[in-house]
Design brief:
809 residues; alpha+beta; four-stranded mixed beta sheet; 15 strands; elongated
């Protein structure tokens, strides 16, 4: 018996048709071998139809040119002739080839051109030019085909800047109309973003020699999408690229998959790979084209070829310890050592997201290859960097996807594998489960000013659906997973309980508010039985809104928002009926605090100490060593301007304030700071003291110096928008002072600006509790009037408004 895979096709349609049917329905070949065999079979048939000719060539273009024929693919064929023969003769040759194809019922995309006509058509039609890049000789005059390919590639490279801009715009237009393949329940495998059309575009970019796509997994992803399309064609018997819901089970079965969810999961994985490769490639194209356009200007400015040796040093701006900005990307510093710094991946990601920059693919690959395992529980800095990353808003998404592309997210959070690329068969949901979780964190970042623990809100947003994809109620399963994750990343027992409660009950408010009578006391008890304190209720309210907003436009409306707010108000009132926890009493001053206060009063100037403060552990060659921050204590004779002066000096020395406490001790002001250097070694204590003396006597222009820093900071964070600051008066929080609570984005000089605003408002800061939770500052200032009395309600409101305006709120 003749093997159907090797059976030649004769020039008769019936012979080709029989061999084609045997190949597609009876043969053992699948995937790329079957597509290649179908292309070879078709080549033989069309070549026989053309016959012996002079000055004529039959050329396959597009997908057929690449030798990738799906069962119902169009045959993209060009009849190329040298123009020497009479036009009627060329028409007869074309009819001899085209009519048998039409008689077979096959889709044919055909054209008849001379090389010059093909070149002119390609110049005016990008799709034609792309097809010629895949031109492959079938039959006839091989020299004609070779000359055509040479010309097509030469023109493509010469016209690359304009043609690539047009190609990118075509891709963006397809995205606007077709959406992103990896989030669609009925995706178009070819036209949606991340589909086969984008994979082909990446080949064209590589052919321009301007940039090349990341190769890891890209060919495998493209092959998988082609395999799914083959199965779709054979299942439906139609030339369709849309994977409709009613056909997904059959397509899954044809591919040997258990169900439609597994099918979509694989499609989404492939689309994610193609989309990420496209993002990286187009960014590199932009960088190369910008560099080319800048060279003539550099030559004019520098005179000749450039700087020393003809090269211009690329500017590198520091973003964080071990992370710099270079040419519009966050990259690793030359001194970075990922193998010795397990927190570096999170620190790089957080710095990139906060700066609104993409994370360099090279940096991510290096981190994935070199970074050691994270200690468990995580050091405090790792947890803080995760919160900073989640709190960056929309820039979090591309940075997170860069980490996912190299497997770093699943390495840090193994539970992520359960939700990665998991479809949600619900018309309300816009995203896969994993993207929904990240989008919820993005939405939560805009709500961090409404809660006292923005770090818990952001982590709960990331984890609230982590139980999906596992047996049982995802809220119950997710609660257990959230507890494990919270303990592993270093949260204490109380915070772990709050996170578990938020995950377990993340649907409680929306379900209760929309399905129950809010005037019924039993309805309120449903909430207060599950959430037993107002701080957690505040977090759950914000998480509910973020979850709904990240789900889709149908999940949140003014009506739903008002119902949830009403329920929260009633539950908060019920919880407030019990005993309320008062402000936390500060620890009494220790002997070192008294000593510093006495020294400050004796000398009339600041006295300070700067000492290491362990914050956790990181691995080393000898086991583990402490992760060290610094504890700074400053005592100053009581006088106006101490807080803004001290905070300004710390900002000038690039010391990040993670926590602070201000109080009166023995007639002096004692400021206790927990700080960390942004990068490099911390300054010497003597330098800090000298600058503080100058700041207090006015010889150091702290505001001016910080304004210069702020201008550079703002340029570096172009396009990044954070939630506005919030300043509120905490009612009944203190008997002898007025408590102002400030919630704002942490940034260089923030505490200095708050202190100046309070000074200008004419109030005295008696004490303060400052904390930085990820990228959010949550600070409480105990202020009085100059006579030492608490502010009147009207005056307190005025000071709060003035402070908020000074912070840009």
């Amino acid at each position: 018996m003749t093997d159907p895979q090797t059976c030649p096709a004769d020039s008769e349609p019936s012979g080709y048709a029989a061999a084609r049917l045997r190949l597609l329905h009876q043969g053992a070949l699948t995937g790329p071998p079957r597509r290649a065999a179908l292309a070879r079979l078709t080549d033989q048939w069309l070549g026989a139809l053309l016959g012996e000719t002079r000055g004529v060539a039959l050329v396959a273009v597009g997908g057929y040119g690449r030798g990738e024929l799906s069962p119902r693919s169009d045959l993209d064929v060009l009849l190329l002739h040298d123009g020497a023969a009479d036009i009627s003769k060329i028409a007869a040759i074309a009819d001899r080839v085209w009519y048998p194809v039409w008689d077979m019922g096959l889709a044919l995309d055909h054209s008849v051109r001379t090389p010059a006509e093909a070149r002119r058509t390609a110049a005016g039609d990008l799709k034609v030019h792309l097809g010629l890049l895949d031109a492959r000789h079938l039959a006839g005059d091989e020299e004609l085909t070779a000359a055509l390919r040479t010309t097509a590639y030469a023109d493509w490279r010469a016209q690359a800047p304009a043609r690539l801009a047009e190609l990118r715009e075509l891709g963006e237009e397809r995205t606007r109309h077709q959406g992103e393949l990896r989030f669609l329940l009925e995706p178009d495998l070819k036209e949606a973003r991340g589909g086969l059309r984008d994979a082909t575009a990446l080949r064209a970019v590589a052919a321009s020699w301007l940039a090349d796509a990341p190769r890891a997994g890209l060919e495998r992803a493209r092959t998988h999408l082609l395999d799914v399309r083959d199965a779709l064609h054979l299942t439906t018997g139609r030339a369709t690229d849309r994977l409709a819901l009613q056909e997904q089970d059959q397509v899954a079965a044809a591919l040997g998959l258990t169900d439609a969810d597994r099918l979509l999961h694989g499609v989404y994985e492939a689309a994610r790979t193609v989309s990420y490769a496209a993002d990286v490639t187009w960014r590199e194209v932009g960088r190369v084209l910008r560099a080319r356009s800048a060279r003539p200007r550099l030559r004019r400015i520098l005179g000749g070829r450039g700087g020393r040796g003809g090269f211009v040093e690329v500017e590198r701006l520091s973003l964080a310890d071990g992370v710099v900005e270079q040419e519009g990307e966050a990259v690793l510093a030359r001194t970075a050592r990922p193998e010795r710094d397990p927190v570096l991946a999170l620190r790089a990601a957080a710095a990139a997201a906060q700066a609104g920059l993409p994370l360099s693919p090279h940096a991510v690959r290096r981190l994935a290859a070199s970074a050691g395992p994270m200690p468990q529980p995580w050091p405090a800095d790792a947890r803080e960097q995760l919160v900073i990353l989640l709190g960056a808003g929309p820039p979090t998404v591309p940075v997170w996807e860069a980490l996912e592309a190299e497997g770093l997210v699943s390495r840090l959070l193994p539970e992520w594998e359960h939700v990665r690329c998991r479809p949600q068969r619900n018309a309300v949901h816009r995203w896969t489960v994993d993207r929904h979780l990240v989008e919820t964190a993005v939405r939560a970042a805009a709500l961090t000013r409404r809660v006292g623990r923005p770090d818990l809100l952001l982590v709960a947003a990331l984890l609230h659906d982590i139980g999906k994809g596992l047996p049982g109620d995802h809220s119950v399963t997710g609660e257990a997973l959230a507890r494990d994750i919270a303990r592993r990343i270093g949260f204490g027992p109380a915070d772990t309980d709050v996170l578990a409660t938020l995950v377990r009950h993340h649907l409680l408010l929306i379900d209760t508010a929309t399905r129950r009578d809010l005037t019924d006391p039993a309805t309120v008890r449903t909430v207060t039985d599950a959430v037993t304190d107002t701080a957690t209720l505040e977090l759950l309210h914000a998480l509910t809104e973020a979850d709904a907003l990240a789900t889709g436009p149908a999940a949140w409306s003014a009506w739903r928002a008002s119902l949830v707010a009403d329920l929260v108000r009633r539950a908060a009132a019920a919880l407030a009926g019990g005993a309320e926890e008062g402000p936390r009493a500060p620890c009494p001053p220790d002997p070192e605090a008294h000593r510093l206060a006495r020294e400050a009063l004796r000398t009339g100037g600041p006295a300070l100490t700067l000492e290491p403060r362990p914050e956790g552990t990181v691995p080393s060659d000898d086991g583990t060593v402490p992760s060290v921050g610094m504890e700074l204590r400053i005592a100053v004779p009581d006088q106006p301007g101490v807080l803004p002066a001290a905070a300004g000096v710390l900002a000038l020395h690039r010391l990040t304030v993670r926590a602070a406490d201000l109080r009166a001790v023995d007639g002096a002001l004692l400021l206790s700071w927990r700080v960390a250097a942004e990068y490099g070694a911390p300054p010497e204590a003597a330098r800090l003291r000298n600058d503080l003396v100058r700041a207090l006597d006015g010889s150091l222009d702290v505001p001016g110096r910080l304004a210069e820093r702020e201008a550079a900071y703002s340029r570096r964070r172009r396009g990044v928008v954070h939630a506005p600051p919030s300043v509120t008066v905490a009612a009944a929080a203190s008997h002898g002072a007025t408590v102002l609570e400030v919630r704002a984005q942490d940034e260089p000089g923030l505490l200095h600006r708050i202190g100046r605003a309070l000074e200008e408002a004419g109030v005295w800061v008696r004490s303060a509790r400052v904390s930085t939770l990820g990228a959010s500052a949550v600070d409480a200032f105990y202020v009085t009037a100059p006579d030492g009395a608490a502010l009147t309600p009207r005056a307190a409101s005025a000071v709060a408004r003035a402070t908020e305006e000074a912070l840009g709120g």
